[in-house]
Design a protein that fits this description.
By secondary structure, this protein is low in regular secondary structure. The protein has one helix at 55-58. The chain is 5% helix and 0% strand.
């Protein structure tokens, strides 16, 4: 069975709280959406990442973000 849908969508505000791997944000109707997640080693790394350092070792404050964030409105 085939459905033919004509849509006119107007979005004044779209607020997305979180986005993660393999997330799908659908607005309107679509055909089949097949979830897919691909992981690539684009950096050519061959060893595991080093363990994170505690704040006392390097003197940084991990409680504050590295980039200033704007509070939500």
């Amino acid at each position: 069975m085939n459905f033919y849908i004509q849509q006119n969508i107007t979005i004044n505000l779209l607020k997305v709280d979180a986005v993660s791997n393999s997330s799908v944000l659908q607005i309107g109707s679509a055909g089949i959406i097949k979830p897919a997640s691909y992981l690539y080693n684009t950096g050519g790394f061959t060893q595991p990442a080093p363990e994170p350092q505690s704040p006392a070792e390097d003197g940084t404050n991990v409680e504050a973000p590295a980039v200033p964030l704007v509070p939500p409105q």
